[in-house]
């Protein structure tokens, strides 16, 4: 199981994580499969190549969600198979894969109390 290589993020990717140590998919850099840089405004960052916690977090994420680091362009033909299972976020936060992709949740999603649905999909 190959882990994403730690590379510098493009200038447009800069995180501002304050509580997650940049080890959750909330982190824009980690989500892109990259390490944080000095351009980021994160606090207590562990998303750097020198920290073993980064490698452990990446392995855990890949184990629980094998598609977590796949780019949308790599998922052509599989867009419908990518659905969320949000429990508390109401699907209106960045870590909901549907919300993040700019899509409504679908009937295939397993989310709870979803607020990201097009009413005409579910009638």
UniProtKB/TrEMBL annotation:
Compartments where found: Nucleus
Name of the protein described by the UniProt record: CRC domain-containing protein
Alphabetical keyword list: Nucleus
Xref: Pfam families: TCR
Family note: Belongs to the lin-54 family.
Domain of life, per lineage: Eukaryota
A GO CC term assigned to this protein in UniProt: nucleus
Chief place where the protein resides: nucleus
Species name: Blastocystis hominis
One example of a Gene Ontology biological process annotation: regulation of DNA-templated transcription
Domain CRC positions: 11-119
Keyword Nucleus among record annotations: yes
4Fe-4S recorded as keyword: no
Family annotation (PANTHER family): PROTEIN LIN-54 HOMOLOG, TESMIN/TSO1-RELATED
């Amino acid at each position: 199981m190959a882990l994403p290589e730690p590379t510098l993020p493009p200038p447009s990717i800069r995180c501002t994580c304050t509580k997650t140590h940049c080890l959750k998919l909330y982190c824009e850099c980690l989500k892109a499969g990259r390490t944080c840089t000095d351009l980021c405004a994160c606090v207590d960052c562990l998303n750097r190549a020198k920290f073993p916690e980064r490698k452990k977090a990446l392995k855990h994420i890949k184990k629980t969600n094998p598609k977590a680091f796949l780019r949308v362009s790599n998922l052509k033909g599989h867009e419908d198979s990518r659905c969320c299972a949000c429990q508390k976020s109401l699907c209106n936060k960045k870590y909901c894969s549907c919300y993040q992709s700019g899509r409504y949740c679908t009937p295939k999603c397993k989310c709870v109390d979803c607020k990201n649905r097009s009413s005409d999909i579910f009638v």
